[in-house]
Amino acid sequence: MVKIIEGLHVGSFNAVNKLFLPTKSDKYIETLKKSNVESDSVQNVNTAIVSVCHDVPYWCQVRSSRENKHFAVKDEKLSDLYNSNFSNSYLNLHFDLVLPSKDDESDVEFEDGFMFVLHSIIFADDQPEERFYKAFKFSYELFEYILSLEKGLVYVHCQLGLCRSTSLICSYLMRKWKRPFLEVKRYMKSVHPKTAISHYFEYQMILYYKNGFKIEDENVFFNYYLKTLDSYLRNRHNLNLETEKDPQFVYSCKTCRTTLFSDNNIIKHEENGKQHKASECNSIFIEPMMWMKDLELQSGKMLCSNDNCNAKLGSFSWHGRNCSCGHLQVPAFQVQMSKVDRFEYSNDDVPPKDDNLQVK
């Protein structure tokens, strides 16, 4: 298991499966017969497990019985969380009465004896039609509650612990830290280098972030996602990004002198194998910037970021535009050189690029 933040771990099906004894094992059955545990009354829960795949651990009662019975929960906050999500079939939320396996390979130490864990089974597939966003609000509330407890632990797993599980954790951290997708993804990669977030899920998270971490109407959200998904997938790798470094030049609106972008934001291109310099073309292509407007449209004008100016700088098109040298840039955020002035960089406050449209 890999620790993402304190109390929150991600791992594979095998790692989570080894945490507790299978419900059909002889030791589990014999120990249960000798115990006085109240199997229908839940209390003292400080561990939650989210299975984000079709592989259900062998210690799960729902796996063996195929029934999701309703439990009486003594803690008021946990009861509210449980009851408000119990009927949601996408989450398959329930409690499992488990017996720690004391596996020698595990670095997790549970107390001896039976314990209840709150368990959600999300049968998610890495497919474009997967409504993964249905788990965002629930997972945030669940993780926040469990991690607020003393010794609270959350384990999230999928088959390998690389894609679906890391995607769900990423959605939680984005909302918790109020940070965009790419920034959280970088953190995830720093603590779990094998993180491999689904392209479909990442786009749902980006839309979730842009909606202020709210989904007022699920049908509207999902229809917009499906309508724009193909365009997003075509364009996500076409921005030719470079590692950030201090710029040499900044570019400002010729009309009002507002700083717009730097040479770090310029997308270099080639024609017939020869790389063109910006000075050789009548226009330059840049990365999408936070000040750009109407980028949800397929094409449009690029106007100065200064609302009191609004001078036309160029055009954008998600389907691409041609440079004066003949190069076709897709997608294209094209600025006419005659509309901007170039100055040497001197710690200017360069406007930020839109990280949500620049996913590597």
Number of strands: 19
Order of neighbouring strands in the sheet with most strands:
1-2-8-4-7-6
CATH level-four homologous superfamily name of the largest domain: Protein tyrosine phosphatase superfamily
Q: What is the CATH topology classification name of the largest domain?
A: Protein-Tyrosine Phosphatase, Chain A
Q: Biggest sheet, in brief?
A: 6 strands, mixed
Radius of gyration: 26 Å
Per CATH, the architecture of the largest domain is Alpha-Beta Complex
- Secondary structure: helix percent: 25-40%
Percent of residues in β-strands = 15-25%
| Tally of separate helices | 9
Question: What is the first-to-last residue Cα distance?
Answer: 26 Å
Q: Can you identify the CATH class of the largest domain? A: Alpha Beta
Series of H and E elements:
EEHHEEHEHEEHEHHHHEEEEEEEEEEE
Low-confidence parts: 238-244
Protein structure class: alpha+beta
